[in-house]
Amino acid sequence: MMNRREALSRVALIMGGTVLGAEAFLAGCTTGATGLKFTKDDISFLNEIAETILPATNTPGAKEAKVGEFMTVIVTDCYEAKDQTAFMDGFKKLNEAATKASGKTFMQATAEQRHSLLVDLDKEAAAFQKTKKPDETKHYFTMLKELTLWGFFSSEVGATKALRYIAVPGKYEGTVPYKKGDKAWAT
Amino acid sequence: MAEQQYDAIVVGSGISGGWAAKELTQKGLKVLMLERGRNIEHIKDYVNADKEAWDHPHRGTRTQEMIKDYPVLKRDYPLNETNLDYWCSDKESPYVETKRFDWFRGYHVGGRSLMWGRQSYRWSDLDFEANAKDGHGVDWPVRYKEIEPWYDYVEKFAGISGNRDGLAVLPDGQFLPAMDLTCVEKDVAARLKDVYKGSRHLIIGRTANITVPHEGRPGCQFRNKCWLGCPFGGYFSTQSSTLPAAMATGNLTLRPWSIVTEIKYDKDKKRATGVTVLDAETNKTIEYKAKIIFVNASTLNSTWLLMNSATDVWEGGLGSSSDALGKNLMDHHLGVGAGGMVEGYEDKYTFGRRANGFYIPRFRNVGDDKRDYVRGFGYQGSGSRQNWRRDVAEFSIGGDYKDALTEPGSWTIGMGGFGEMLPDPTNKVTLDKTVKDKWGLNVLNIDCELKENEKKMRKDIFADAQEMLEKAGVKNVTAHDGDGTPGRGIHEMGTARMGRDSKTSVLNGNNQVWDAPNVFVTDGAFMASSSCVNPSLTYMAFTARAAEFAVNELKKGNL
Question: Is there a domain that residue A42 lies in?
Fold first, then answer.
């Protein structure tokens, strides 16, 4: 985010908890621990979670944008220690929830089972976010979803293939026609 | 062997120093411009200018390591991955906070003119007369009519885009074509005009971005990446504008890595004779002589330099014979505003990325309006369509959700106030007795806070923002009252103010130090009051005016 005028506009968008994780984007991250190790399986797991949230449609999905890898970089370099712990605990919790719902782990579950699981987890996380204290650690699924959205839409794949990206617009027009289906500007 | 004698020395190469160098060299003086930090060459050294989020290891955000390394910068938006190299290291250049003061600095050629917000507004006599009328601070020794031709002059060179709005509180300038307002901004502007019967105005911001080619610069390409440095010279900075003009004269020597530690003063002649420079890379000291010295090291650093000069004559330094050196520190206080959703306009969007917002000029304590505080505030903001950072009503996971997020959301509008701060002598800087910076130099102790007038004003900034948006039909309006810590406006000013009386000011009406007529201070330190508008344009105007005065005085043999 570029400057305080945009920071002001972004803050103004936070109404009744409707904008996901905006404060994370605004304030960035605070001190965290190092020494986290993500295995290839961990990254696959994160990619599948991300792909369930933002799957390929007629535009690419989170996996193609390598959102799993992105998540590990941010959690390692940017997250506070307590958030890192919550994030890693989330792996376990998510699989527990998957098993409870379908008898299978997330990776074993079908696409439909994964989808329906994450819809439920999203509801649980949203309810938790509404009632939690400001300095209480976020729900792990809120972290996963925030990282997925941010990781996808700020990636080159997401920005250039799912959204519209023009490097050098050359002009500014305050009002142009918009029709349903036109993609949003990426930056 | 480099020359040691110049006609003029300019200390600092930021937004006002660059102007001093341009004006003095163009008037035929051989000028040495000293910059404490590294050189950043126009275009060549804008290493991140074309990068997008995905080109950065952390998509432009901050890491825990950055937070550890920048204990002050981390307090606000400037700490980020995209232009980290443009911000001064807090660890190399510490300062002491008697009260918290968020001081964000740019120590390199161009200073904060590389990263500034570019909003450029003139003062009116409402501002110049304020101290005289309400008794805070000392009377400005000038009025608008003396500065008006200089605003004309600097705007014409710098290139300011804006609209001639015909408002007494915000005098019109010499403008390049204004940028567009968006449809919701126009909507709200029209409703505000109606509801408040023409007493409140929402106008397009006046910004130092050039909307047409200007002075050899191609122009703003609406990428909104200004603060990374612009390869198109799209906005005014030392690098894009004043430095090339100065260099073209053949009269400028620019020396980076040059910390000026002292202005040398001859107490018999009552004149400065030159400066002492500490080379920031080699730690060697070098003496330079000049007939005129312009001090443009940024408000607090210029004040620091004065405090460390002529201490054999005045213990408190050059300019301390008055009671004003180091005192009356002001900033614009931020952190209060409001925002909400605008219904409709689903068939409208924008093209390009506007590096500008709208502005609502001051309406409080204007005309018949009388509040329980003095002075006033303006708002800056924008109205745009939500992007993927939003909830979608029907979906939360999956293909439909993603597809919904690839389209723009509802229109929203938001704004934040910029409030005037009164000159108060208890808001001050002094030299700390113990803490040293990386070069072994003493550092500043900052003791500054918002006082009663600011606190009362902030209540109005909050309530007015909420009321105006609601009356303009904006839905779900929420106002916020956040961090107003001084320094966050990044408009610190006032600690070597000008005035009519040498006992209560450091400078006269020509920016001359009363005690050293060949020393001119034309960065924010000279400001006798703060207004509520962004100050850099005013620094430019006073700098050009003082440079002309200085050269004329030199020619007459008065310096």
Answer: yes
